[in-house]
Amino acid sequence: MPVPPLIDFEHIFLHAPVGICVSQHRVVQACNIALAKMFACEPDVLVGRSFLSMYPSPDEFERMGARIVPIMNIEGFYSDERIMRRANQELFWCHVSGRTLVPNDPHAIDIWTFEDLSKKRPLTRALTPREREIAALLVEGKTSKIIARQTNLSPRTIEMHRAKLMRKFSAATSSELVRRLLGGTHAE
User: What is the architecture, at CATH level 2, of domain 129-181?
Assistant: First the structure.
């Protein structure tokens, strides 16, 4: 019986078809080729850098870091779709999933995967940081009340942002807005 070849996990990590990284306190410790390509740079450029460089703004980096903590503390896992920023400053939709390796210390050591959604969900409008945050939560199917709770804003403020997004995307209803945010038909 032939002996199976040894599995080279480092090679598998480097060449996985999705972006993968290991982080410590939100600083990239290791990443694969797919992640570097997604963020338009070389892997050695990302290693040692804060996730801040991958976010559209420092506020979004801070708010997301705070939002992740209670969910990771309970579930040990976090997943969402959000707008990220490549090294060339291009913004794009990205599906992000992560798992903490240190229970009750969610940012201590984490494993993250990233999937570029830009081909199926192009970013077609310029959005403010708050609009990007609310758009990402709307895409998840969250109500204004839940979004308000998660963002520490009032439901009325969320409704005002939703109305602005509806005008920007020429959407008559909330479901039409979500469809357009997801890359459906656009009224130009």
Answer: Orthogonal Bundle (1.10)
